[in-house]
Amino acid sequence: MNYLTRRLVTFPLIMLGVSVLVFVAIRMVPGDAITAMLGTEAGLLTPDQRKALAGYFGIDRSWTAQYWHWLLGALQGDLGLSVTNGKPVLDVILSRFPLTIELALLAVVIALCIGLPLGVFAATRNQKPSDLAVRIFAMLGQSTPSFVIGLLILYILSSVFGILPTMGSAVSLFEDPIGNLKQLILPALTLGFSFTASVTRISRSAMLDVLNDDYVRTARSKGVPALQVIWRHALPNALIPVVTLSGVEFGYLLGGAVLVEKIYALPGLGRLALDAILQRDYALVQGCVLFVALNFMIVNLLVDLAYAALDPRIRLGGR
Amino acid sequence: MTPLLSVRDLRVGFGKGDAVKEIVHGVSFDLHPGETLAIVGESGSGKSVTALSINRLIDYGGGRILSGAIALRTRKGEALDLTQTSPQRMEKIRGAEIGMIFQEPMTSLNPVKTIGWQLEEAFRLHRGLSGAAAHKAAIEALERVRIPDAERRLGYYPHQLSGGMLQRVMIAIALATNPRLLIADEPTTALDVSVQAQIMALLAELKRETGTGMIFITHDIGLVAGIADRVLVMQAGDVVEQGPLDQILDAPQHPYTQHLLKAVPHFAGGEAVRHDFRRVDALKQRPALTVDDLTVRFPVTSGLLRRKTGAVHAVESVSFDLMPGETLAIVGESGSGKSTTARALLDLVQPVRGSFEVRGLEGKSQHRPVQMVFQNPYASLNPRLNVESLLAEPVRAGGGRLTSAMRDRMTYLLARVGLPTDSLTRYPHEFSGGQRQRLCIARALMVDPSVLVLDEAVSALDVSVQAKVLELLVDLQKELHLAYLFVSHDMAVVERIAHRIAVVYAGQIVEMGDAAAVLSNPQHSYTRRLIAAVPTIERRRERFELDTRSVPSLVKPIGYEPREASWISYGPDHKARAEELSA
């Protein structure tokens, strides 16, 4: 599996690049931790006070010195302290991560469970009314912003059915599985809705392509029953674009879904990162971005492995 | 004897409602058990649509049987009208009663399933076998189509096998359940001549063994001669003639059949070569193209660090020269390096050794003395450019400007290759395959080249179109004194255009010389094999021998250098490589 080793070697290099980019990017933004903390009152500080504060936040040294210091810590698993609450960045991120990953997983599962069969069904009914209905659904799902869908679901549940989802702090999956599901199912549906729509569209078009392929005709000429032609012969060949899309979406969701977290008041990674940026919490922003980048790379690797599992031409190489 | 299959007034159309377009206008024929019926026609004649209607695969291709009857006598002896059978019942008939092989073996097998899985599926569906029993049956099926090392091959995926092997697998699948009827839709069109001969031999042998009735669809009348009992000729959806093989071939009644028989280039063993060029006279001139020791290798890498572990020796020490006004045909099978040679001459691939020199005609200003015409006219014209831009491209690429003289040349060339003068503003999709190839030729001639490389330039065309394009090429050659490098696998076509022939095998020229000499008196064993594999009407009674020899691998370890060739001369312009005597 030398492909895998090659990928693992490039991992740290990419992470290094990402960290430099974030480091520079956030410092290019006007304002710093002091102004974020004190607002306009920061202007009232004497130079000595300002210098003392900068020293306290560790932003008085040159960028290279700051980066070097941070890098040395990061290599030892210390991503620094968050200036807003004084806790280690890694702990803060890890405390938010379970909710985020669960939400992302739920959304992917919902999207694949609904979108894939729907797309395959639409492809087999090409240009018929049922296909049209699926396509309209997919178009609506993709073009409606998630906050609209989220608010709509909230509205229907609260004012029509009179039930409200649990909000606020995260309910642990292990301590209270049902409460946890109750808390996450609505946000997951909200997130999964547009995701479902894109999975539907892409699996429909991939299936349509594959259904015209010669080997599908061969399968039919062998007398393979219609359903088996679709699920056994055609679908495995149509999965690659679906896996690609799901990987990208999943990686994206692992970075947190800011809007949905806001609407349902969930303590996820997205809100964490947003707040950190607003407060110029340099260490936390860097930590968040690095963490998201790592997630993305792992997901991409999994996607590539999935390609190899799906397609022997990738697995075994060309002739 | 009651026929196995009886088709009456079959009409097939595409489209829905009022927009139905009838493609097949009333086909009728009978097929008896053990008999082979060949359906012959050019593209668009409705021959494939007819075949796909019989096992109703046409339902999935957007077509519909409009009227008529297809009576099939099943294994149990009942007569079934396939036009009225339910889709569920058809699933039981396909595979069990009717097997089918298709044109493209490379794409007709599922790329993500093993050969074994796909074979076993046929046994699972129709014989209820599973597990070890299905596996055993699959091995036997592969052995039946003469695939060596069958058990190991079952674990292979389609991309790991060659086209010829895959077509054998297809045949094994189609015959897995001993169907009473086998439909073969151009089963050898995508294959090399010698592989074609093997597949034909296999089909003929299996037909004798099993007594299966066969419908054999082809555009190649030469191929029909070897296998068919009866022939049905189709043109534009109509049956124009049908009858016993000998009657159709020897005494064709319908003008279209006569035309087809005349248009198809029949290989005549060197008797039909051109006599319009004398190399001896031309030798006083300087050659238009001199190739010396041309060698192309592609590195093979492996391991983490992509270390070079060997090389594909695609072209090995190829040398020849080409006079103005002369055609040199490079003949060989796929993978023999003939196209790579052509590409090297256009700097499309880098040779590792050797040189070539192109000389323009005296007094001609030339930016690009070598131009190329490719095999597939559908893929080699950018669909988003109109004809004017397409023709301007080689000029622009050479740094030229689009002047009024260029425009004049465009209209002149369009007229010369036989295209309407208003073509300039049109787009490629508005032209037929033959017209597109004419466009490609006109495009190549825009910069006034002295050498034209024709890479399988007529292979993708229908026979009658092919004949006309060849005619055009000959005329252009005489008029413009062009040198042609004609790369082809088709001996019959080569015979009609070549003055000289170079036979390549595994990257090396094994025989070269005057076309008539090489074709009538082949010396190298490979050339002989190649010529023996060409199906001809004259040799229709001959039986093809099964040949399972494989081409030697072109991948050699680092530092490998082939032995210096020693040539044996067989005449003033005819030499062949000395062969090693092996047991």
UniProtKB/TrEMBL annotation, chain A:
Signal sequence residues: none
The main location is: membrane
UniProt topology in membrane: Multi-pass membrane protein
SUPFAM superfamilies hit by this protein: MetI-like
Does this UniProt record's set of keywords contain Transport?
Answer: yes
Where on the tree of life does the source sit, at the highest rank? Bacteria
Entry's localization field: Cell membrane
| Sorted UniProt keywords | Cell membrane, Membrane, Transmembrane, Transmembrane helix, Transport
- Which residues belong to any copy of the ABC transmembrane type-1 domain? 97-307
Listed transmembrane segments = 7-29, 103-123, 144-164, 184-202, 238-264, 284-310
**A Pfam family annotated for this UniProt entry:** BPD_transp_1_N
Q: Which family does it belong to?
A: Belongs to the binding-protein-dependent transport system permease family.
User: Under which name does UniProt file this protein?
Assistant: ABC transporter permease
Automatic annotation (TrEMBL), chain B:
Name the InterPro entries for this protein.
Answer: AAA+_ATPase, ABC_Ni/Peptide_Import, ABC_transporter-like_ATP-bd, ABC_transporter-like_CS, Oligopep_ABC_C, P-loop_NTPase
Q: Which Pfam families match?
A: ABC_tran, oligo_HPY
| Keywords for this protein | ATP-binding, Cell membrane, Membrane, Nucleotide-binding, Transport
ABC transporter domain segment(s): 7-261, 289-531
Compartments where found: Cell inner membrane
Q: Which GO terms describe its molecular function?
A: ATP binding
Membrane topology summary: Peripheral membrane protein
**Gene3D superfamilies cross-referenced by the UniProt entry:** P-loop containing nucleotide triphosphate hydrolases (3.40.50.300)
| Origin: domain of life | Bacteria
Q: Which family does it belong to?
A: Belongs to the ABC transporter superfamily.
Identify this protein by name: ABC transporter ATP-binding protein
